[in-house]
Amino acid sequence: MADRKGADKLERLLQEAIQRAEDAERERQEERQRAEDAERERQDEHSPFNVRSTHQFRDLFEKQPRTGAGTRYIINVSSSAIHHNTGGFPLASYTLTKNSAALLLQKIADETDPSKTQIINFHPGSILTLRPKEYGLTADSANWDHEDLPGSFAVWAASPEAAFLHGRFVWAAWDVEELKSGPLREKLEKDDTFLKVTVKGI
């Protein structure tokens, strides 16, 4: 009788352990599903803003009557997230849509005479905006760029002097003189894929 009771108790404990494991696995699956649903929602939110609006803006911009023979300029504020690891932050949909917008304008640039419309994608810099603060970053967390940097760079990018960057992706923090001359300029002239969204190795 004692052995039977011991066996029943062991069986009960085993069943309880199995149930706990199944419950834990179900919770993990539900958590993964919630994360996937949230990611789809973020993608639905980011896609119209980062891709569709960029396309619509460009189309509407080009449909405006030209009042002279001068060059038009499209300077797209992109993100370094399109080309490097995001450090574990939940930015998959943001990265996807910013990459897509940059690629869209890059392909349009390939089909556009820069003397008619000059197109440049650029990363505005490491600016301490509200988003980094939401992740707990502070003024002491990094060597932040000055908030005036992207505006100053955009003014230069929207000039004939920056025509050699038509269709490329650059950082506002890079030295303009180094881009304009020397090894970087030579590489830009020789390599049509340099500083562009592409698949390296093909």
List the helices and strands and how they pair.
Layout: H1 2-63, E1 72-77, H2 92-110, E2 117-123, H3 130-134, H4 149-157, E3 169-171, H5 176-180, H6 183-190
Care to describe what's here?
- By secondary structure, the chain is mainly α.
- It has one domain: NAD(P)-binding Rossmann-like Domain (Rossmann fold, 3-Layer(aba) Sandwich), CATH 3.40.50.
- Helices cover 53% and strands 8% of the residues.
- It is built from six helices and three strands, in the order αβαβααβαα.
- It has helices at 2-63, 92-110, 130-134, 149-157, 176-180, 183-190; strands at residues 72-77, 117-123, 169-171.
- Strands 1-2-3 form a three-stranded parallel β-sheet, sandwiched between helices.
- Strand 1, helix 2 (92-110) and strand 2 (117-123) form a beta-alpha-beta unit.
- Helix 1 (2-63) packs parallel to helix 2 (92-110).
- The longest helix has 62 residues, at 2-63.
- The termini are far apart.
- The mean pLDDT is 86.
- Residues 1-47 have a biased composition (Basic and acidic residues).
- Residues 1-55 are annotated as: Disordered.
- InterPro entries: NAD(P)-bd_dom_sf.
Q: What percent of residues are in strands?
A: 5-15%
CATH topology: Rossmann fold
- End-to-end Cα distance, whole Å, is 74 Å
Radius of gyration: 26 Å
Q: Any low-confidence stretches, pLDDT <50, length ≥5?
A: none
Please describe the biggest sheet, giving its number of strands, its sense, and whether it closes into a barrel: 3 strands, parallel
In summary, what is this structure?
The chain is mostly helical and 202 residues long.
